[in-house]
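Long-time lurker. I teach an intro course on protein structure, and each term I like to show students one example going from raw sequence to a predicted 3D structure in token notation. This year I'd like something fresh instead of my usual example. Would anyone be willing to generate the tokens for the chain below so I can use it in lecture? Attribution to the forum is fine with me.
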Amino acid sequence: MSEPQPPQPAEQTAAATAAAGRPTQEGTPVAPEQAVGAAQVGVIGLAVMGSNLARNLARHGHTVALYNRTRARTDALVEEHGHEGTFVTTGELDEFVGTLERPRRVIIMVQAGAGTDAVIDALLPHLEQGDIVVDGGNAHFEDTRRREARLREHGLHFVGAGISGGEVGALEGPSIMPGGSRESYEALGPILEDISAKVDGEPCCAYMGPDGAGHFVKMVHNGIEYADMQFIGEAYDLLRAAGLGTTDVAEVFRTWNTGDLESYLIEITAEVLEQVDARTDRPLVDVIEDAAGQKGTGRWTVQSALELGVPVNTIGESVFARATSSHPELREAARQALTGPDRTLEPADREQFVEQVRQALWSAKVVAYAQGLDQIRTASEAYGWDVDVAAVARIWRDGCIIRARLLERIRSEYAAHQLVTLLEAPSVREELARTQEGWRQVVAAAVTAGVPVPGFSAALAYVDSLRAERLPAALVQGQRDYFGAHTYRRTDDEGSFHTLWSGDRSEVRV
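-- Reply from a regular --
Happy to contribute to a lecture. Here you go:
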């Protein structure tokens, strides 16, 4: 097995780059034979995300080598955006690799799964010890761990980099969550930090930890995103059930975006609700089919949490809510068979109810972050990653889909305290104490009216479960011992015990 050679930090390669004759005239595509060893970074896969990331790199002064399986995409990118920086266009992988300075930095932006493995297989014969391969797609973290181990055997560095912010973020500054060796980050990190979003001059990019840490953090980011979107949907549904029109609800969200709920998702919610459908002159949201799709990262978050034994019921409910929405036959059959309240909410004070919904939305949002960060902390301990949770919150403050004012509070609380859960942070627990009465009333009103709020109610149940002195799990353990002799532990003695249920029901120490 060959150990990866420590790559040189980006600033240490400047002299070698100059000697290689990097083109300095921006806006002129460079042929590979004119740019041997001159490109600082290469991008493979030029669909929208890859193209935008390549443009972002070029805009920041980095010479970017381009490769796409279909050459037409490479040519189209350069023809339309070549003026934004210096691009090296290539049509073959060996040409592409030859244009890169050492250590070679290759960012793969192709479809996750078999496509990524195919690109890696094709790249391997052309790379040398110390080169860095980056997967910027939404890969499952276990795939990243496997790929990192494989490339390490070849003396190469493999970096699983979570990149959040969508198409706009990739172009204008995403939140970037790279994992891999620390040595690779020394050479790659300055470039990624350069193109990331910034908050008060701080880059929204930081080293997450070894092998799959970066993609794990991105996965959980997406799980929190699922929950946040579900909460917003529930708030919207409640306000409509209380008699507010779509335009009125849009104004409520616009107002909320000026306070402690300020976030990207709240901002775009107001814009979506204000959009009028050109065909029908109705609110666009009223003509969109109510079946939410998903690409798998939320599901992965829940699956991983189950394997780690971490409770993330709010994220789980958001995943199941999307699944429920996408089963029309199930929903139609139930509508025909089931009866219940008519979903009408008639609050005595509508303005007060709107405020209570705001409180429920903020509270549930905090719980989703608490659960996601607990999952990251637990995985970090299980896999030996040593993830800095405060750094995670810091790089989520901008550039990503869940960017929000709340994240600065989370960052500062984790930086200042050794927290088992975000819910014990002083400012968070104080705010939850103020908002929980409104939160409880909203959940009660929704249940009474028949408005489904699986996210709000699951988050509240999580809080109540954590603060309970005793849970009914004691009865569950008794049942398990009865039918399966699974044993139980006592509150007043050490060790494990079993009751002889089918015998004289005496207790034995196991």
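Some talking points for your students: DSSP finds 21 helices and twelve strands in the chain. The radius of gyration is 26 Å.
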